Amino acid sequence: MKKNILDRYDRTSNNELIINVSTNKFENLYDNFDMNSSFLKKDLSQQLVDYIIESVSEISNENFIIKFFLKEKVEQKDILQIKKSFNIYFNYLEELEKKKMKEQIKNSSIFILIGIFFIGLSILTEENQELTYRIISEGLMVAGWVSMWEAMAILLIKWLPLTKKLKLFKKISLAKIEFEK
Question: Integer distance in angstroms from the first to the last C-alpha of the chain?
Fold first, then answer.
């Protein structure tokens, strides 16, 4: 299956996959909502970002370049601007992922502390033989383990997709970009 996916892409003479992007003019690469911003500060078009992310995701660990085909003549300063804004934008996405990862660690720590607290309370109330206290003790034990489970789920399950995205954005931000008429 993977070979079929890779066959969809052209290759350079160095056997790098080529992610082709075609548009009429370079302004189309950016969102229109912030037209008063300089191009270095503007967001890339969400369609372009989604296309690049999807393409790089499906080619996995293959080396690649991003090749832009613009119908309008592009000056060298615009090419440099596009390359720089591309790098800045995907670095920005990378920073957002790092922020999410820090938030996940913080949430995990809080859940672990809550879990330890509930389990500790459960152990303290367990000594009382009255039925009400035993029920409360069991409830606290369950709540403690649920909290601990959530902390482990964050670290073991939710962490992997975040690290994958982080690597993906880093890879895209460092990508070689070429232009052709």
Answer: 33
> What letter represents residue 107's amino acid?
N
For residue 118, how many C-alpha atoms fall within 13 Å in the half-sphere facing its CB? 19
> HSE-up of 167 (CA within 13 Å, CB side)?
9
Report whether pLDDT(1) > 50.
no
Residue type at 121?
L
Tell me which of 167 and 30 has the higher pLDDT: 167
Among 69, 18, 21, smallest CA distance to 7 is for: 18
Give residue 73's region: left, alpha or beta (phi > 0; psi -120 to 50): beta
Nearest-angstrom CA–CA distance, 144 and 167: 34
Q: What's the pTM value of the predicted model, to 2 decimals?
A: 0.76
Q: Give pLDDT tens digits for 52-83.
A: 999 999 888 889 999 988 888 878 888 888 88
Q: Distance between CA atoms of 16 and 109, rounded to whole angstroms? A: 43
Burial class from Cβ neighbours inside 10 Å (0-12, 13-18, 19+) for residue 118 reads: buried
Q: Around 101, how many Cα atoms within 13 Å sit in the side-chain half-sphere? A: 16
